[in-house]
Amino acid sequence: METKCILVEVTEGIGVLKINRPESLNALNGEVLEEMESALVGLERDTAVKVVVVTGAGNKAFVAGGDIKEMLAMDPLAGQAFGRKGQRVMLLIGKMKKTVIAAVNGYALGGGLELALACDFIYASDKAKLGLPEVTLGVIPGFGGTQNLARLIGPNKAKELIFSGKILSAQQAKEWGIVNEVFTAEELSARVMEIAQLIAHNGMIAVATAKDAIVNGLNMNKEDGLRYESSLFSMLFATEDQKEGMQAFIAKRKPEFKNK
Ligand code: CO8
């Protein structure tokens, strides 16, 4: 696929999607969002890809937000269309069977943090700065940030971050429960690949099913969530991977998952 604003590379089962507009600190405009949507659909279909990593080009930004220059002239209808386009990408990430990791290599502000929040988890460089400063521009997070952040860290902390527009260091974002791990800028990419490889070597059906249970279970009450978990759990006994994983354990060898 020909792309102008993103780069996609697959190495050893890991698909890396890099937002590539460093001159605008990788801000998300309509074109980037459209390219991302097609690329994510392609990565989900590509059987060679086990895990996807989303990151930003250059060493300054992951994504510094929705494109303010593009948003400036929007009327409510255009704003709604732009917001929906962004939400489609964020929802797609949640629905993907494959794990999607955000490697936050610099500024993750506004729509940039919203993109990271839509991923399964976030690793950040110690140079990263994270926040949702939309209210300082007279708007609110519109790519799922109000929903995803409140679900992740609870409504009170989400309100503090969104109402104040304050920007957190990577370490603070870890303390707030937004970022899983912080690494030096030099280490980030290798450490993200390490965890991606660890995930990629597990049974893909089991990993995808665990994601399904967590993502969809969060929208249910606990009793329905447990029932959902149980039905997914029992379905896995129909897979060859379940037999292989358990036989390998008993035979004290490494499992060879076929993702069947
Ligand atoms: N949009 C467009 N261009 C941007 C953006 C952005 N979000 N961020 C940076 N740029 C551009 C700058 O305008 C500048 O371009 P130029 O050279 O043409 O002036 C270039 O990138 C470099 O940026 P700076 O010169 O500002 O670099 P600094 O190192 O001085 O500052 C900052 C870096 C602190 C990251 C600063 O650029 C900044 O504050 N950026 C904006 C951060 C922000 O407020 N983000 C939130 C945007 S709103 C949003 O994301 C809403 C998403 C949901 C939309 C839903 C629609 C309904």
Termini Cα gap:
28 Å
Main pleated-sheet profile: 6 strands, mixed
- Outline the low-pLDDT stretches: none
Attached small molecules: octanoyl-coenzyme A
Shape: globular
Structure, explained:
- The chain has 260 residues and is an alpha/beta fold.
- It has two domains: 6-200, Alpha-Beta Complex (2-enoyl-CoA Hydratase, Chain A, domain 1); 204-251, Lyase 2-enoyl-coa Hydratase, Chain  A, domain 2 (Orthogonal Bundle), CATH 1.10.12.
- It has eleven helices and ten strands.
- The chain has helices at residues 30-45, 68-71, 76-95, 111-118, 145-153, 155-164, 170-175, 185-200, 204-217, 222-235, 240-250, and strands at residues 6-11, 14-19, 51-56, 61-63, 99-104, 107-109, 121-125, 129-131, 168-169, 181-183.
- The strands form two sheets. It has a six-stranded mixed beta sheet, with helices on both faces. A four-stranded mixed beta sheet has the order 4-6-8-9.
- Strand 1 (6-11) and strand 2 form a beta hairpin.
- The longest helix has 20 residues, at 76-95.
- The radius of gyration is 19 Å and the shape is globular.
- Octanoyl-coenzyme A (CO8) binds at residues 24-25, 27, 64-69, 79, 82-83, 86, 107, 109-111, 133-134, 137, 141-143.
- Octanoyl-coenzyme A binds at residues 24-25, 27, 64-69, 79, 82-83, 86, 107, 109-111, 133-134, 137, 141-143.
Characteristic key phrases:
single chain; 260 residues; alpha/beta; 2-enoyl-CoA Hydratase, Chain A, domain 1; Lyase 2-enoyl-coa Hydratase, Chain  A, domain 2; 2 domains; six-stranded mixed beta sheet; four-stranded mixed beta sheet; 11 helices; 10 strands; 17% strand; globular; binds octanoyl-coenzyme A
